[in-house]
C-alpha cells in the first residue's frame, strides 16, 4: 500500500493541511490547538468559504481536549455545516491512508460508471430505464449512451447538450424526465 502512495510536501497549502484527492480538503486540529481555541475558528471559517470541494475537519480528541471538543463540534458541524472526524493521538496516520485510498478508488456507484453497451444484461437495463421517456427509441438510446457514457451524465446534461443530439422537443422530454 505504501508503495502506491506518493507523499509530497508543500508549505503552500494555505489553511488546508491535507488533500487526499483533488476535490477534498482536510484541516487537522490538534488537541493543543483545540485547547487554545481561537486560531482554528479562523481556519475553519476560511475553509467554509472555499467552493467546489468537500471539506473535512479531523480533530485530535484526547482526555485533555474533551471539554473543548464539544465547542469545536458545535462551531464546525452546527454553525459551519462541515464534516468532523474525531481521532485519537495515534489515529491520524491510519485515517489519512484510508482517505487517500478511498478517495482514489473508482466509484462502485453504477450510475457513475460508464455504460458498456456490449454487456447485454446491462444494455437491457439501460434501455428499459430510458424507454420510459416518451419518443425515445433504441437508436436515440444508443446515441445518448455513446455521447454521455452513463445514466448519471445523461441526467446532468443540459437541454442544449441534449438538443444538439436529439432535437429540441425530445431533448426537453429527456431533461424533464430526469429533472422534474
Automatic annotation (TrEMBL):
<dbReference type="GO" id="GO:0036297">
    <property type="term" value="P:interstrand cross-link repair"/>
</dbReference>
<dbReference type="InterPro" id="IPR040646">
    <property type="entry name" value="PND"/>
</dbReference>
<dbReference type="GO" id="GO:0043240">
    <property type="term" value="C:Fanconi anaemia nuclear complex"/>
</dbReference>
<dbReference type="InterPro" id="IPR010994">
    <property type="entry name" value="RuvA_2-like"/>
</dbReference>
<dbReference type="Pfam" id="PF17949">
    <property type="entry name" value="PND"/>
</dbReference>
<protein>
    <submittedName>
        <fullName>Fanconi anemia-associated protein of 24 kDa-like</fullName>
    </submittedName>
</protein>
<dbReference type="GO" id="GO:0003682">
    <property type="term" value="F:chromatin binding"/>
</dbReference>
<dbReference type="InterPro" id="IPR026985">
    <property type="entry name" value="FAAP24"/>
</dbReference>
<feature type="domain" description="Fanconi anemia core complex-associated protein 24 pseudonuclease">
    <location>
        <begin position="1"/>
        <end position="101"/>
    </location>
</feature>
<dbReference type="Pfam" id="PF14520">
    <property type="entry name" value="HHH_5"/>
</dbReference>
Amino acid at each position: 500500500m505504501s508503495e502506491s502512495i506518493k507523499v509530497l510536501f508543500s508549505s503552500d497549502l494555505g489553511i488546508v493541511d491535507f488533500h487526499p484527492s483533488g476535490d477534498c480538503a482536510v484541516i487537522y486540529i490538534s488537541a493543543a490547538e483545540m485547547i487554545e481555541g481561537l486560531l482554528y475558528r479562523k481556519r475553519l471559517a476560511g475553509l467554509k468559504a472555499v467552493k467546489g470541494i468537500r471539506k473535512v475537519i479531523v480533530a485530535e480528541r484526547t482526555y485533555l481536549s474533551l471539554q473543548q471538543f464539544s465547542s469545536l463540534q458545535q462551531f464546525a458541524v452546527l454553525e459551519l455545516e462541515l464534516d468532523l472526524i474525531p481521532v485519537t493521538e495515534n489515529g491520524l496516520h491510519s485515517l489519512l491512508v484510508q482517505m487517500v485510498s478511498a478517495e482514489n478508488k473508482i466509484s462502485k456507484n453504477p450510475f457513475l460508471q460508464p455504460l458498456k453497451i456490449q454487456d447485454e444484461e446491462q444494455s437491457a437495463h439501460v434501455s428499459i430505464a430510458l424507454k420510459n421517456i416518451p419518443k425515445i427509441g433504441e437508436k436515440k438510446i444508443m446515441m445518448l449512451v455513446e455521447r454521455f457514457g452513463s445514466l448519471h451524465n445523461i441526467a446532468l446534461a443540459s437541454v442544449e447538450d441534449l438538443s444538439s443530439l436529439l432535437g429540441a422537443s425530445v431533448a426537453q422530454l429527456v431533461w424533464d424526465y430526469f429533472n422534474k
